[in-house]
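> forwarded from #structure-qc
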């Protein structure tokens, strides 16, 4: 008979952001923390974010000590980590980004506890430009990857045996999304009444041009030629917006491309439901969490054959995947999706949060049991 797992385990987490942050990594970190808080063997999680927009507007899990004392720069962050180390024993150190690995490695070594490194996408596909992150990339006890493509590319320069790795794709909270009608208020806001809408969500950053905004903009003239009622909604904001807007003007697409700016969290699902097709013909996405959200709203979705979005689409099981370099393939997939009915695809529950929490608990349980 196996002995029961001890209760009251503690986890120290070094994070980029979570609550008070925006984007996919912040959401992933929130899901990891919430999943750990559901583990009955874990008594407390001490999490140190590097950045957070204050004040925090969300209630935090009961088991979480969300320590904001490290927000004043990297020196303050190091001091916060040192203070956290002295607050009691720990059973696991969780590093939420490759750039935090040098500090996390020191902390885990001093505590003599296992270190988990989480990797996501293009940040881990090639050797880090940061010398210590690069030199220590193979020093974690376990690597948790958001996708197989990210894990494979990471292991091409930072070797790990299979036993020291776990795939942990994004979680989707299916209860927060549902199939529903288009919001007439949002249609009026953006002038979309009677339009067939293509949508892509994401941060408009020069460093993230791989997400596929350019690909849809470039193919819009051909799409409009076949469907004059087509509009492309780019949901999100960032410093690359001006360049994208200029490209829209250059192509004469002002009447067919809408930039929403930053979308508030409470309006996110209604924005997805504006779409007739969600398209993400990307080249460097680690996974593509937004595809899960769109599909949870019943929106026919298109991913890419060239990055982690094909895993979000379960290799085509949940929807189309296309080569983003093939204009005709992108155009044909968008046109075909316009006529697909709205429905949550069978198999999306593979990514449901309870399954995510179960996988995470199994992984951390083994690591802490062997500590």
């Amino acid at each position: 008979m196996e002995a029961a797992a001890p209760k009251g385990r503690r986890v120290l987490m070094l994070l980029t952001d979570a609550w008070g942050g925006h984007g996919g990594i912040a959401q992933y970190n929130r899901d990891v923390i919430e999943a750990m808080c559901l583990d009955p063997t874990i008594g407390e999680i001490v999490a140190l974010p590097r950045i957070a927009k204050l004040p925090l507007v969300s209630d935090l899990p009961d088991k979480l000590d969300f320590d904001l004392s490290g927000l004043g720069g990297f020196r303050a962050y190091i001091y916060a980590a040192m203070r956290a180390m002295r607050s009691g024993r720990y059973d696991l150190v969780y590093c939420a980004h490759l750039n935090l690995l040098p500090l996390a490695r020191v902390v885990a070594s001093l505590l003599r506890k296992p270190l988990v490194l989480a990797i996501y996408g293009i940040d881990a596909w090639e050797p880090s430009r940061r010398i210590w992150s690069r030199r220590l990339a193979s020093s974690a006890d376990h690597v948790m990857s958001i996708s197989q493509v990210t894990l494979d590319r990471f292991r091409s320069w930072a070797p790990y045996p299979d036993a020291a790795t776990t795939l942990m794709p994004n979680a989707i909270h299916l209860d927060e999304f549902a199939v529903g009608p288009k919001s007439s208020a949002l249609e009026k806001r953006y002038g979309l009444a009677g339009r067939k809408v293509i949508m892509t969500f994401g941060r408009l950053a020069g460093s993230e041009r791989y997400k596929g905004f350019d690909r849809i903009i470039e193919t819009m003239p051909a799409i409009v030629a076949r469907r004059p009622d087509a509009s492309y909604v780019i949901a999100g904001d960032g410093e690359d917006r001006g360049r994208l807007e200029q490209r829209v003007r250059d192509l004469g697409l002002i009447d067919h491309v809408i930039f929403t700016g930053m979308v508030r969290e409470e309006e996110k699902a209604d924005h997805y439901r504006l779409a007739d097709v969600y398209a993400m013909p990307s080249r460097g996405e680690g996974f593509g969490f937004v595809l899960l959200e769109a599909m949870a709203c019943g929106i026919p979705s298109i991913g890419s054959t060239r990055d982690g979005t094909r895993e979000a689409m379960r290799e085509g099981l949940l929807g189309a995947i296309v080569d983003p370099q093939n204009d005709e393939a992108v155009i044909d997939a968008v046109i075909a999706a316009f006529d697909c009915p709205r429905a949550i695809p069978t198999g999306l529950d593979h990514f449901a949060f309870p399954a995510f929490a179960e996988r995470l608990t199994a992984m951390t349980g083994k690591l802490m049991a062997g500590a």
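QC bot note: Residues 174-350 form a domain with the Rossmann fold fold (CATH 3.40.50.2000). The mean pLDDT is 95.
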